[in-house]
Amino acid sequence: MGEGVLTGIAYYFLGLYSHDSMEIIPYIVPSVLLGIPLGHYLIRCMDLETFRRICTAFDAVIVAFGLSRVLIELNLAAALTT
Questions:
Q1: Could you state, in chain order, the average pLDDT of each consecutive group of 10 residues for the chain (82 residues)?
Q2: Which of 21, 45, 51, 53 is deepest in the core (most CB within 10 A)?
């Protein structure tokens, strides 16, 4: 938790927060409010290592999707169209 708070403070002083970035907060908050209790419940119902692997795989998919969108926006890669 402390790491996240300190990172947020550092981002503030670096000027990384903008009006546009604040507009996505309503989309993020429900995910956090649902994800934390759901994760807490799931970690009690399954093996710790299995939970870690699922979380890591999900994180990898999200990062790959975000990277692909950035590459397309910067015209460094072409989108597949059918």
A1: 88 90 90 91 90 93 93 84 63
A2: 51
What domain range is 36 assigned to?
25-82
Number of domains making up the chain:
1
Taking CA atoms, 34 is separated from 30, 31, 52, in Å, by 6, 5, 18
Tell me, yes or no, whether 5 lies in a domain: no
Q: Is 53 helix (H, G, I), strand (E, B) or coil?
A: helix
| Spatial distance between the Cα atoms of 51 and 55, rounded to a whole number of angstroms | 6
Measured CA to CA, the distance from residue 40 to residue 61 in angstroms comes to 21
CA atoms of 47 and 54, how far apart (whole Å): 11
Q: CA-CA distance, 15 to 20, in Å (whole number)?
A: 13
Q: What is the pTM of this model?
A: 0.57
